[in-house]
């Protein structure tokens, strides 16, 4: 049986191009390429897959949104933005959760392909694993070759439309802003070593301290969730490290750290200041209010969904900058018992909530 891959190989084009010509995609293919593909299909006796043709013509109104943890407010906010945007496009969302398992993520893409989803939105950090990245890239290529569209929220590693948070830059700005409050001795609850988002934020924070000529922080690795933050904070306290401020590389880790500090009788911010990253909605109800780097989470979900449903052919990368928000959890040293102010170096100006 002659396959679409056979036609693409014979015509000397990509699988995606062959699919766009033969499956009736609305995306344009140059006249010369179209003739080559159609000629190869005729010579080989290729028969068009009616189901694939339906998908390529955009008849499906289903969009798959793949997140890592439904209970994590970060992903819930992004999914909310994607769902709201899907409603505006008259699309129906199928939501899949990976439970932070890369194998399950790959399986969900395959399932959504089998269900003829119009587009797939994947959110969450990639893991530094060439084998897993290659497998996901291959699964996405199969899906896109049949007419599907893909957008990512995270690192630009898979050749798809991508909404890319500027994690490293945001953490660097945060280091400058907290140092502006008089802090000189830091610890970082750094998350998993092979998780790109955690690594980028840790590196950015270290770069910011280095730019200011400050000592390298104490670094403790742990899970990228609340329990991971709590465990890492407990390990830090057991070390007896002399620090004045702790940076957790995401807000849910910061929430776990805050619980650990309270359980040990460590007052925040009186004895130890604390900062996170993301500005998840639940931070509004936390006491003390937590310093963080604000990302427009719901808007990021909407942006990614719009990219996935657009008619543009070439992959686009949309960077998203974070914004430092200094709150009560970071105390200004030299003024005991007072909340942090928004004073910081002029080139690194934080904002108030």
UniProtKB/TrEMBL annotation:
InterPro entries: HTH_LacI, LacI/GalR-like_sensor, Lambda_DNA-bd_dom_sf, Peripla_BP_I
Keywords annotated in UniProt: DNA-binding, Transcription, Transcription regulation
SMART domains membership: HTH_LACI
SUPFAM superfamilies xrefs: lambda repressor-like DNA-binding domains, Periplasmic binding protein-like I
Gene Ontology molecular function: any one: DNA binding
PROSITE patterns membership: HTH_LACI_1, HTH_LACI_2
Domain HTH lacI-type: 2-57
PANTHER family named among the record's database cross-references: LACI-RELATED TRANSCRIPTIONAL REPRESSOR, LACTOSE OPERON REPRESSOR
Protein name per its UniProtKB record: LacI family DNA-binding transcriptional regulator
Taxonomic lineage from the root: Bacteria, Bacillati, Actinomycetota, Actinomycetes, Streptosporangiales
């Amino acid at each position: 049986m002659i396959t679409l891959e056979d036609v693409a190989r014979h015509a000397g084009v990509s699988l995606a191009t062959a699919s766009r010509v033969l499956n009736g995609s609305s995306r344009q293919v140059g006249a010369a390429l179209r003739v080559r593909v159609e000629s190869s299909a005729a010579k080989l006796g290729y028969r068009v897959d009616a189901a694939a043709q339906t998908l390529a013509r955009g008849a499906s109104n289903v969009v798959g949104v793949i997140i890592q943890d439904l209970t994590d407010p970060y992903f819930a906010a992004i999914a909310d933005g994607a769902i709201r945007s899907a409603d505006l496009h008259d699309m129906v969302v199928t939501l899949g959760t990976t439970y932070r398992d890369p194998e399950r993520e790959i399986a969900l893409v395959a399932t959504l392909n089998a269900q003829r989803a119009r587009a797939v939105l994947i959110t969450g950090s990639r893991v530094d694993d060439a084998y897993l990245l290659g497998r996901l890239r291959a699964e996405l290529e199969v899906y896109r070759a049949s007419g599907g569209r893909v957008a990512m929220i995270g690192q630009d590693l898979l050749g798809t439309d991508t909404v890319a948070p500027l994690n490293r830059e945001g953490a660097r700005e945060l280091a400058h802003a907290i140092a502006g409050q008089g802090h000189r001795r830091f610890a970082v609850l750094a998350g998993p070593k092979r998780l790109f988002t955690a690594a980028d934020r840790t590196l950015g924070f270290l770069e910011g301290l280095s730019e200011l000529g400050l000592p390298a922080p104490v670094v403790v690795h742990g899970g990228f969730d609340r329990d991971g933050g709590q465990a890492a904070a407990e390990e830090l306290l057991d070390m007896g490290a002399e620090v004045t401020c702790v940076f957790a590389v995401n807000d849910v880790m910061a929430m776990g750290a805050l619980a650990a500090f309270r359980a040990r009788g460590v007052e925040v911010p009186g004895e130890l200041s604390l900062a996170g990253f993301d500005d998840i909605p639940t931070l509004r109800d936390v006491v003390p209010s937590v310093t963080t780097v604000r990302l427009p989470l719901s808007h990021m979900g909407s942006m990614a969904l719009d990219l996935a449903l657009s008619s543009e052919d070439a992959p686009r990368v949309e960077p998203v900058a974070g914004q430092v928000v200094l709150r009560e959890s970071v105390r200004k040293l030299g003024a005991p018992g007072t909340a942090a102010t928004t004073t910081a170096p002029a080139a690194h100006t934080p904002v108030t909530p």
